[in-house]
Amino acid sequence: MNLILQSRTAERSAIENIAAKAHAMRIEAIHAHAWRCVEVDPGSKEAVEAASLKAGVDATFIRAGMRMSDFGLVAMDMDSTAITIECIDEIADMQGLKPQVAQITEAAMRGEIEFRESLTRRVALLEGLDAGALQRVYDERLHLSPGLETMLATARAVGWKTLLVSGGFTFFTDRVRERLGLDYSHSNRLEIVDGKLTGRVIGDIVDAEEKRRTVERVCSELDMPTSRAIVMGDGANDLKMMAVAGLSVAYRAKPIVRAQADVALNFSGLDGILALFEQ
User: Fold this and answer.
1) Is 223 noted as a catalytic residue in this protein?
2) Is Transferase set as a keyword in this record (predicted)?
3) Residue 84: φ, ψ to 5°
4) Residue 174 catalytic?
5) What is the mean pLDDT of residues 81-90?
6) Where do the domains of the chain lie, and which CATH numbers do they carry?
7) What is the rounded distance in angstroms from the CA atom of residue 7 to the CA atom of residue 156?
């Protein structure tokens, strides 16, 4: 096993301290903000993670020799993963209901409320809102997560396919997909009648099970096993699709997600996954 350390703020002494806790044979520089600790002790994981969090360092234990060619698909959650906001919370803000909706969103992401129930409750609060609020959220508040475009440029260069799978809404996933040139997207569709949100979703809800099925379906279309998929998410409703992946990535995620993911990026951008591979 190797240990990849990444930080834009940590002193070299902090990196060396973490490497020592991992009993690394040596430290190799990957780039200015990433280091590979070679032949580490997997039993040191708990101590390494505690020291890394304290120092503001992302630490990933990874098998030696992993290459980008081992994978063929990168699948991403949208809200708070590919983008920096929760779209439904920002839509609710147009109704003066952001605190109520955000509270339900947070509970769902922590796994305290089943996602299907939480989405139904949140969307119901949007009834009567002018549909123009969706465009305002996209234009004024939606920002791409740090490192996303760099990661995607590299993904395209090595031939990875790209999937955006979201419990959010097609209004946003369609636009993000087109903006970034993604290959696939799948999400929920808000019902709009006479220019107003009805407070309902059309069709089946894209919940945790449907996210998993979507990753499996796209892999099947690409004639590849799910072990060749990298799946990124931040909330409890991402865990099932992350579980079928060859590499699961928790991006600035809830504790329940970080605990189950192969990789936790707490401080790096999404391009932090690129340092995991040996070229």
Assistant:
1) no
2) no
3) -90, -10
4) no
5) 96
6) 1-64 (3.30.70.260), 68-279 (3.40.50.1000)
7) 25
